């Protein structure tokens, strides 16, 4: 793996990214705490979990396409796995197909028409680049944010919301 930034710039970039992620998470926590308007059918728009998870692929993903996090759901000692789109292994060379965006309308129409196999073929031909060897150009985790809530160890939590 080649290094393209000096150590000082990389450290500063990571510090800025962590700062943005923390601000984003606090913003998301604030928005989640605000009252929402109930739907006409009074169906609550909530996700309930019976217990926290320790596995990454069972967590609750949140994000905006650039910043992301995986929430594990342990109230006493929450671990939030942070990710940011610019942190990945590999080189600066991009392998994307240059005119792939031009096929999006055709792909959407095929999907709306229920022609899924043909849409998949068009995606493979016109949008996806050739697959690189495993482990290259993979997103890397930014950090684990640990939030400890003192006094919650003794609470018995029956449902995580």
TrEMBL record:
Residues 47-148 form the Glycosyl hydrolase family 95 N-terminal domain. Coiled coil: none annotated. It holds the Pfam family Glyco_hyd_65N_2. InterPro entries: GH95_N_dom (IPR027414). This is Glycosyl hydrolase family 95 N-terminal domain-containing protein. It comes from the Bacteria. PROSITE patterns: PROKAR_LIPOPROTEIN. One of its GO terms (molecular function) is alpha-L-fucosidase activity. PANTHER family: ALPHA-L-FUCOSIDASE 2. Signal peptide: none annotated.
């Amino acid at each position: 793996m080649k290094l393209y930034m000096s150590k000082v710039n990389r450290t500063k970039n990571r510090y800025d990214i962590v700062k943005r992620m923390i601000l984003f998470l606090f913003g998301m926590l604030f928005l989640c705490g605000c009252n929402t308007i109930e739907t006409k059918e009074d169906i609550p728009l909530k996700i309930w979990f019976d217990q926290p998870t320790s596995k990454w692929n069972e967590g609750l993903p949140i994000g905006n396409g650039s910043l992301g996090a995986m929430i594990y759901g342990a109230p006493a000692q929450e671990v939030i796995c942070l990710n940011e789109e610019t942190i990945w292994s590999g080189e600066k060379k991009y392998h994307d197909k240059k005119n792939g965006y031009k096929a999006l309308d055709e792909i959407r129409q095929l999907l709306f028409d229920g022609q899924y196999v043909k849409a998949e073929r068009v995606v493979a031909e016109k949008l996806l680049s050739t697959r690189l060897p495993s482990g290259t150009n993979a997103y890397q985790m930014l950090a684990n944010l640990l939030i400890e809530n003192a006094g919650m160890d003794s609470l018995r939590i029956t449902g995580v919301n």
